[in-house]
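Practice problem 4.
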C-alpha cells in the first residue's frame, strides 16, 4: 500500500548531468515516482504547495532547460521530452508518472506518447495554441476570423510573458517579491520561483529564461497537437482543464476570454482510448491556487490504475 503521509526526510537538490545539465529537487517516499514539470517562465518551486499532498510518493521536480537553475538548451518540444527521459534514466525510475503544468503539461503528454513504460501522465492546462476549426464552430464565426482571433491571443500572451521576464532594477524586483507574498498561501511559491530564476548583473535582475528565449519556447507550442498526441498515447493520460471564468486582463484582445473558453470546451470533449479528461473550476495555475483539488484528482487517477 502507498504511504499517505509526506516523508520526514528533507528534499535534496540533485544535478542531472548532460546537455543541458538539469536541476532536480528530490523528495523520498514510497510508491509510484512522480516527475513534476513546471510551466513556461516558472521553476520547480511551483510544486511546493502540491508536494505535501501527493500521497507520500517519491517526487522529482525538474527545472526545465533554460529555467531556474538548469542550463540552457534548444527551445524545442523534442528537447524537453528528451530531458524527461534523461531524468527517468538517471534516477532509474520505473513505472513513473510524469505530471506537468502548461508547457510542462505538453511535455508530460508527449512523453506518454513516446514511452510505454510510464505508469501514467498528467497534463494540467497544457493544450498548445487553440485550433481554428473548433474555435470557429464554438464562437459562431468563420475560420479566417477564428485564425485572426487566435493570432491576437497568441501575440498578447507572448508579449505579456516576454515583458514579465524582462530585466528590471533590483529595487523593482524586490517590490515584485513583496507583491507575490500578498497573493495568499501560494504567494510564497511564486516569490521563491522568481528568486530561483533571477540572475543579477550591474544592478539589474534578469529572470530566466528571458524575453528572447521565452518567445522561442512559445514556438514549441506549435509543435504540440493534443489531437495528434492523444491518438498516439502509449500510457494513460489525465488532462485537467480549467473551467473557471477567465479574469479580465488589461490590454487583452476583446475576445480573449471567448477564445480560451472555446479551447477548454474543445479539450473537455476530446476522446481517446488512454485519455481521461476532467474539468476543474479553478484558475489556469490550479496547482498553485487549488492544490488540494488537483492532488485529489491526481490521487484518484493513479488509484484507478492501481498506482
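Answer key:
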Amino acid at each position: 500500500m502507498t504511504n499517505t503521509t509526506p516523508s520526514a526526510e528533507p528534499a535534496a537538490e540533485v544535478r542531472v548531468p548532460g546537455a543541458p545539465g538539469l536541476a532536480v529537487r528530490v523528495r523520498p517516499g514510497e510508491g509510484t515516482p512522480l516527475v513534476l514539470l513546471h510551466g513556461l517562465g516558472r521553476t520547480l518551486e511551483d510544486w511546493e504547495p502540491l508536494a505535501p499532498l501527493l500521497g507520500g510518493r517519491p517526487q522529482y521536480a525538474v527545472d526545465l532547460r533554460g529555467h531556474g537553475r538548469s542550463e540552457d538548451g534548444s527551445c524545442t518540444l523534442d528537447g524537453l521530452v528528451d530531458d524527461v527521459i534523461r531524468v527517468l534514466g538517471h534516477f532509474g525510475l520505473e513505472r513513473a508518472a510524469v505530471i506537468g503544468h502548461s508547457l510542462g503539461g505538453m511535455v508530460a503528454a508527449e512523453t506518454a506518447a513516446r514511452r510505454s513504460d510510464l505508469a501514467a501522465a498528467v497534463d494540467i492546462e497544457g493544450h498548445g495554441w487553440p485550433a481554428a476549426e473548433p474555435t470557429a464552430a464554438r464562437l459562431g464565426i468563420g475560420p479566417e476570423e477564428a485564425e485572426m482571433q487566435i493570432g491576437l491571443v497568441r501575440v498578447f500572451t507572448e508579449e505579456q510573458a516576454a515583458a514579465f521576464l524582462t530585466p528590471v532594477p533590483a529595487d523593482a524586483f524586490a517590490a515584485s517579491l513583496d507583491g507575490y507574498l500578498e497573493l495568499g498561501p501560494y504567494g510564497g511559491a511564486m516569490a521563491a520561483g522568481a528568486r530561483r530564476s533571477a540572475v543579477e548583473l550591474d544592478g539589474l535582475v534578469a529572470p530566466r529564461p528571458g524575453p528572447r528565449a521565452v518567445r522561442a519556447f512559445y514556438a514549441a507550442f506549435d509543435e504540440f497537437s493534443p489531437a495528434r498526441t492523444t491518438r498516439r498515447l502509449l500510457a494513460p493520460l489525465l488532462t485537467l482543464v480549467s473551467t473557471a471564468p477567465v479574469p479580465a486582463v488589461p490590454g487583452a484582445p476583446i475576445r480573449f476570454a471567448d477564445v480560451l473558453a472555446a479551447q477548454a470546451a474543445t479539450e473537455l470533449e476530446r476522446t481517446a482510448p488512454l485519455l481521461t479528461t476532467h474539468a476543474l473550476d479553478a484558475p489556469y495555475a490550479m496547482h498553485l491556487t487549488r492544490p488540494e483539488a488537483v492532488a485529489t484528482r491526481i490521487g484518484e487517477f493513479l488509484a484507478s490504475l492501481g498506482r
